[in-house]
Amino acid sequence: MRVAFLGLGQMGSPMARRLVSAGHEVAVWNRSREKAREIEGARAEDTPADAVRGAEVVMTMLADDAAAQEVALGADGFAAAMAEGAVHASMSTISPALSRRLAEEHARRGQGYVAAPVFGRPEAAEGGKLRVLAAGPKEAVKRCLPLFDAVAQQTFDLGEDPPAANVVKLCGNFIIASMIETLGEVFALGRKSGVAPEALLDVLGTALLSGPILAGYAKTIAESRYEPAGFKLRLGLKDVRLVLATADAAEVPMPVASALHDRYLAGVAQGLGDLDWSGIARLAAESAGLDG
Amino acid sequence: MRVAFLGLGQMGSPMARRLVSAGHEVAVWNRSREKAREIEGARAEDTPADAVRGAEVVMTMLADDAAAQEVALGADGFAAAMAEGAVHASMSTISPALSRRLAEEHARRGQGYVAAPVFGRPEAAEGGKLRVLAAGPKEAVKRCLPLFDAVAQQTFDLGEDPPAANVVKLCGNFIIASMIETLGEVFALGRKSGVAPEALLDVLGTALLSGPILAGYAKTIAESRYEPAGFKLRLGLKDVRLVLATADAAEVPMPVASALHDRYLAGVAQGLGDLDWSGIARLAAESAGLDG
Amino acid sequence: MRVAFLGLGQMGSPMARRLVSAGHEVAVWNRSREKAREIEGARAEDTPADAVRGAEVVMTMLADDAAAQEVALGADGFAAAMAEGAVHASMSTISPALSRRLAEEHARRGQGYVAAPVFGRPEAAEGGKLRVLAAGPKEAVKRCLPLFDAVAQQTFDLGEDPPAANVVKLCGNFIIASMIETLGEVFALGRKSGVAPEALLDVLGTALLSGPILAGYAKTIAESRYEPAGFKLRLGLKDVRLVLATADAAEVPMPVASALHDRYLAGVAQGLGDLDWSGIARLAAESAGLDG
Amino acid sequence: MRVAFLGLGQMGSPMARRLVSAGHEVAVWNRSREKAREIEGARAEDTPADAVRGAEVVMTMLADDAAAQEVALGADGFAAAMAEGAVHASMSTISPALSRRLAEEHARRGQGYVAAPVFGRPEAAEGGKLRVLAAGPKEAVKRCLPLFDAVAQQTFDLGEDPPAANVVKLCGNFIIASMIETLGEVFALGRKSGVAPEALLDVLGTALLSGPILAGYAKTIAESRYEPAGFKLRLGLKDVRLVLATADAAEVPMPVASALHDRYLAGVAQGLGDLDWSGIARLAAESAGLDG
Predict the structure, then answer these.
(1) Is some CB atom of chain A closer than 8 A to the CB atom of D291?
(2) Are the C-beta atoms of residues B277 and B236 closer than 8 Å to each other?
(3) Is A169 a catalytic residue?
(4) Is residue A174 included in any domain, yes or no?
(5) Nearest by CB to B258, which of D252, D262, D268?
(6) Is the Cβ pair B96, A278 closer than 8 Å?
(7) CATH code at position D110
């Protein structure tokens, strides 16, 4: 397939290389031109517009909303140069709002748009082991699948509305960031309590973080099924109290633990103490004006 | 081995049964006596003191600190009735502070004490699939190992200081609770953004929650190795901003995301923007008076 | 003076009336025209451009950034119709960023710009009892003073850089919002602890909220003078602990109290326990990359 | 009156001196004896028990719960030595829970108990300008009034249940701590936005912190009267958004502002946007299981 690939950073370069290896005809562009010349077997172009001319699919992997908007829709943006019927697959982490706008602008020009952000680090991109979250019109997504297959081990179908894929990607990054902060508090507490980081890592990595436990809770929450309780919400409050008491004695500020205390306490105060402890998810939903 | 098992709730009953099945001589006690009579093959006793007499190991699985303290050290507590040289393995989730006190009281009486809280739900207890976190004097832990093997798939050795095991257990429960809250916010955001819970679950369960990603971050933080960056802290801030902007537009309050924003913003403000985004763990450590 | 007043909501209408009463020649405009006709003695105009023609000062009191930007700088915005040398006094609560942009656009046209947001509710506007926070070039501010005097009991001079006034106004509203949330938590705690709201109000209103205490702390923080301690930071931690323990027992979630606990705990963990308890302000500054 | 005064720290010493000056017969005790000898005109005693013998009222001003409990109820505590019919006025900031216990212990001995914590710093104690929050049986409080008059400008009557006074005192300290944190965030934002601390202080001290504004909001919340709105909750959300956007651009983490954003967003999401912006207090109440 004739493909244009715009944005050759840590993620984009290995992705473009994999497209070349898979036998596609690839034109590349990058703001600093040296990066473009380093992709062997691809045609380096000077402007986004030059790169996309004649392409059936345009893939973008740009730094942020500002870059994505300028390169696609700015004064010299590529949208105007894309062929009617061509498809833009936007693979970087951008806002659902910009994704919506890109979908509209491309539609107005008779072009397709697929939101296709990815999970995975540069090594995964090199090995073709990314995971693609794809959302857009069925025909447009179908056109892109062979290209996604060249860079990813799996493509998730998130329906026909592009921003949905961006929301899911942001949810994923939020979960990782939350776990990072949580682990930051955990290792600080461990260190001040005389627990060696390696010992803590050994237990958490084996028994908790890589097994089915966390995914199990995700399932419970996705299904809003908080009864019967596997472990009661009021016992969750008890344990969060123990965490905070231990942290208080060791002088370790734990802002996430404090937020959890407020949430579990609200759950018990509102009469939900006999639900499963995952039932605090109901409070998050209700605070957003949803039914629990 | 002659074992006493005190506390026959949802976790304790299946654990006691497995000890019987494994061929140990088991005496049981529970506050409400019917539960004790239901453990076939075990000797039901009327008081904790009666149950522990003659036992080589006393296992407890009691509701909370108050119960554990009263049953062990109260006016009719079993500590006074335990044989010199016998070992108390305390398997419920209690505070490190009470664990320290139990260790001292038993030592004063020439008895051993092992903190041995567990990960796993009732089903895991029935199947002998718990994970035990054990800490205490080597000889005492060694004595308990055959019993732990009867109820668990794995026993972690957390050293000779009992409270360490309790700290690790609390850290584990804190991580689960934090993930529950995080997922609660995530599914609320998904619902208000038009993403079906099943689609979100499919992606998160497969691509994030059950793979090696989260454990990888735990390793980075355990080793305080934030350079070179796989994904820069300043990009982490960018993504948390996108999460909050999306949530703001959808009217979804996300307290954990707000806390993350404060942390990432502090990281960038303090000149750490080029670290890996897991580097906010350094801020958690520093706020506790540790070096980062 | 010839004045144009744009934006006749709850605040704008009484302000425009006071300008008329003070003897100024006032042209008014409002998106819904009836409001404009209700200002007796003023000339109602159909467009912002018509209203500002010939005016020496243009005052705006518009709903938000979007409205302020469109009315001033949009396709039919008034900036193009203002006379060279005229001054725009922007009195609504807008962002410092928009204030900076307005300053630049007016300067480019040879016009003056003063940021002049106000404290005070509609009743204060009617009585001429507002407080104006003014920032802008000296000559431009001087031109506006007689107009400010017509609506306000006091005008603060915040220097020559307009966004400074908007920052101070936002700080003020943040303080009020924070006190509202704090009081919300306080009255919930009071109610669940058997303290009548009227009794609580009687004490807090008299002894704390209207006296010099809070302003005294503002002075300490403005001067970063945390030694000698009037009340030590470690005692502050003690009291926050008592608040949280009381709230925990009464089942009252208090998110601000939780945040305070984290802050005071960090202060003590970092060796600041002997500073005055206002010394946690140093941590807020440091987290922003400032010296404490 | 014959009075015993126990605890001669920064607050206790000037209070004891004022009792002497007012003509009372005062016995004093302090853990470190030199402090006791420095109170001219008072009788220094070696133990709490010696000090209270014969006293009609025993006043205590001790460091914390642990000290208060030990001095009153410990092995050598003074409760056993107090006369039947004598009254204990506990003036330090202790927990409502300990206050309840002291009330019970004294009642059991036929003694009176009044919780009487104070607002005011050492200078206020010297000048007799404290404010006393008194709660206890009418007769007992009445007995103490002449003594309170010697140290305070005002005594609030908080009813017959002693812990109520301790709750109110803790609420007061929580409000001050919250304002300290809020001001810490405010001055950090000001500094990073180019606003001089003195200019900010000038405005805030004059226009906001010492006037009737904050007390007015306390009244609204005490009466749960959120309609009609003086300033709508949805406008409050708008302003909190502007605060956070300004802080984000200036790289100033503001945890309290983040918490406020979550609260206001929840208010709007739940359909309360047209209430007065003090209406978020309803959410605090509801999260505690109260009706709003």
Answers:
(1) no
(2) yes
(3) yes
(4) no
(5) D262
(6) no
(7) 3.40.50.720
